Amino acid sequence: MAYTRRSLLAGLGLVGLEAVMPSFVNKAGASSLTAALAAEMGSSTCPFRLAVINDEITQDFEKACQIVSGDFGLSWIELRSMWNKNLTELNPKEIEDARKILEKHKLRVTDIASPLFKTDWPGAPRSSKSESRDQFHADFDASAQDKLLERCISLAHSFNTDRIRCFDYWRLDDQKPYRAAINATLQRAAERCAKNNLILLLENEMSCNTATGEESAAVLKAIPDRNFMLNWDPGNAEALQALMRDGFHYALSLETHWRGAGTPEASTRVSMEGLRRTLTKAGISC
What we know:
five-stranded parallel beta sheet, 40% helix, disordered N terminus, 286 residues, alpha/beta
């Protein structure tokens, strides 16, 4: 059966993940979660850095920043692609232009939403989940991942953020023979990030090898590194309450992939209103 990522996560809630959260908080000195949504909406009572992924609104970066800052009243934004380019492929002038736009709109960056390790695992049978859909203007094969990581580290410094998002390869029909090697790759990447005081965030993704709460908990247990955390999609009000309970205060980013309102911008506006209602239902003031 085929499931969308969001429908699966909504059903999962925090099963499997809640069990690992307290111990991981103690080890890392901070919440094991880093759900991506950034911040402070002008309210001192908001516990999260509330944000939107910029290209969910438009590829026009200036307009996206104006909406996030001016219309939504947010102070944070997550960067993925702009001007019909993946963030990792921007040239120096485009990076500087983006920095100036962020400064103009007084926005800070939650993380680099990179496509790191969103590719086939080398040497394994080709994944049935190998994607041909839009990858946000990115297409890096397995041989390019080390170079891509270095690029992401450079971008993190350029945009003054300490977090880089990654995945763990397209989902294999049987990942057991390769799981230890995949974990070792993630461990090395986290260690590389640590040298630059950066945190590597693994996003749970239905199309990749870590999708469920149980799988997420297993990876966090296998890689007990202070610079390795989980980028989790909460999915519902109950999950947001769990984040509050466990002291989570990092980024919470809106990623809709929904276009039911006709355009990306209109759909994001509707989704932001839905998120605000969900926060209110969970007893969270933002």
